[in-house]
Amino acid sequence: MTRYQEFLQFISNYVGGPNFDAVFQSISDQLQKQDDLAVAVTDQLTISTASGVYLDKALSSKGVTRPGDLGMDDDAYREMGISIVAAKQITEAVHVVLSTFYGDDLVRAHTTSGIAGPYIFAPGDDLQFMLEDGVVHTLTLTGTEFTDLQNATVDEIVDVITRYIRSIGSNGFAFNYTDPDTNLQYVRIYGGAKGPYSLVQVVGGTIQNELEFPTIRPTFLPSNTTVWEITRNIGDTYRFRWVSGPAPLLGVVEPGDSVMIYGPQFEAYGFHGTYAVTSARPVGPMTSYDSGYFEIQTTVQTGLASSKANIAPPVNMPPTFYTYTVTQALYSDLKFFAPDKNTPYSQPRYALAWEPAKSLLKVYMPATTSIVHRELIGAAHTHMLYPANELNGSIGSATDMTQEIILVNNYTFKVPANGADCMATGGTAVFGSNSIPINYISRSQGFTTVVCASPCTGQATPTSPIGTAGILTGSPDAFGIVRSTQVGLITVGTALADDPLNPFLGAYVVDPTANYTLTNEIVTLREPIIAGSALSTLLVEGVLPNTSGNLLFGLNLDGQESPVPYLAAQSASSTDAVNIQSISQFGNTVTVTTVAPHGIIAGEKTLINGTVNFNGQWVVVGVPSITVYTFNRTPAATLFESTGTSTPIIGNPVTTLIMDTAYVFKQNHGVGEDVTLLSATQAYTPAPDGSDYGFYVTSTAEGRIYAESIIQAITALGINLEIIIVYPSDIGLGNAGDSEASTAPPPPVSDALYVWGPDAT
What we know:
This protein starts with a helix and ends in a 5-residue tail after the last strand. Mean pLDDT is 78; it is low at 373-384, 459-469, 498-509, 689-699 and 729-761. By secondary structure, it is of the alpha+beta class. Helix content is 14%, strand content 33%. The protein folds into 7 domains: 3-43; 52-86, no CATH class; 105-211; 227-337; 385-496; 515-572 and 655-680; 578-649, Elongation Factor Tu (Ef-tu), domain 3 (Beta Barrel). The chain has a 9-stranded antiparallel sheet with strand order 17-25-20-21-22-19-18-24-23, with no helix packed on it. A 7-stranded antiparallel sheet has the order 12-7-8-11-10-9-13. A 6-stranded antiparallel beta barrel has the order 27-28-36-30-29-37.
């Protein structure tokens, strides 16, 4: 239907005349032109339909410019632009998802002050920093931004920094970071971009001198009254040389560091600001012109005449001066820092997407998101059973194939080993004159596994998967396992081990349905508990704090019970003696029946008195019941008595717990059962970054799996998506990272230790 026909539908049939058609056709034609114009204008608003200069404007706003000299037509330019913009939008969308699940800390660059607030500022104080634009920005305080400049709060300086960053057109911001352990407040600055190109770099200023963003060089001295000789070498280079007073710790200062010189005594000679260190030499045995100095460059007129480099300057001859001697008064007058370029991937944990090649998007995601969900019932622990220095000693064999070293990958090897499970970090593996640094070493399931800090394996055969460099070499056997016939020596570094008196259970796997949080303080029951009883006192082996608290009885046993309140703990010298009802020997076995619970555990000793044949100390080998125990005695005999007393001999301290008589036990608990102190009667809240997990169970990663599914859904067709999971700690995993990168560490190698507890698989 034409525009004229549409128009006639609204005209009365009684309207007519010789000029009817001409008039209404003219009106219809004008309406059609307006319609066509509206469509044409609308088409120029979107990239997919725009043309000419309108297409150029639409794509230039997205950062895509038409190469004018090439004569590229609209269709080709439009197709290229849509592809580029789509790729940018996908990466941006991925970082939005990552930020949602992991937070800005893992997606944006950030840096945190080393000094907690409040702060002391003065009008004119400044902060010099750089964001993604590569421009050094200077924020200067006027003094009106704070209620009290001499007591500026973290919230106030955070607000000032954020408003300044937004005023320069960046999406960066500052944040009040509260340390969860100390509750101290610090200033944290975030970059404006999300993703690997995010950047924050603090480069100087008096505010930096007060806040100390990392990395401050450790040059603080008990007395910072160093005397510096300042000379001007050729050009604009100035040397600050130690001549007397406390020797400065210049051994930690490197070229490229920055020095903040803000002492009034330095300012009097023209030195006030942050300068790049161009050269530094540590202090020698005594003062000299070629040691104990650092150099800067500045064009500020200082009044010093130029002298020759590395040659002592002439003596000052007023009005000509070659040197100034300045005595430092405070540490804050002159101190050094490394102007770190903070990026998201320079942080221990990051969630980022890269485009390393055309149509390839690599997404790095930590194993745990800010959302941690648990479904498993019960608790589990990783337990280091024995001292890890038991791993020390020789490994490998040149003749015994069963003891040869098995090469797992470029960084990892293992060797058969007997003994209890244990692990350590650090140390060395030595083969002849070659030494390999160790990251982690563990013994589990009959093998010692060593994960090295650098490649340790050599070429086995031209077709072997083992690497091409290193010191361990071997060849595949009939089963395809690459073995080395070398002999080496293992020495561990940090030996993680149990304290036999204060055993530590290791990493606690959280159960949110449990109304408790465990500690590592454990005692052992010395008397039985009957369900339905309310106790006023309870005898245990071990020591608990003499304060009120809550206990868990029978951890991971069917009769697990908590929380059970106790009011206090009192030291008890020993358990009481109980009368013997009968004591008899048949062969080498002696059986003792007591009239009351004896409180003895198999493997402990008992002291028997008042008998004819059995007085003395004996090691208990069996405990059939709470009133019966057995031990061995030679020579064999057949004897019977019904007199005497039995007293347990306990090596560890014995404690009497004062119980809350209002609590009625719901389960039976036997002698020898563990009693664990609770730190809270509520489920443990895990750290959002997952750093408090030493090992993983399936339900830990549910948040990350959901984030993966969203990223896969928003990724366009034709883009190869590769997701790499980065673990927050190597302990329990051997290593982590992108195993396909040429410089990457090996894929994770499990070195899990002994684990117990329901569903802890």
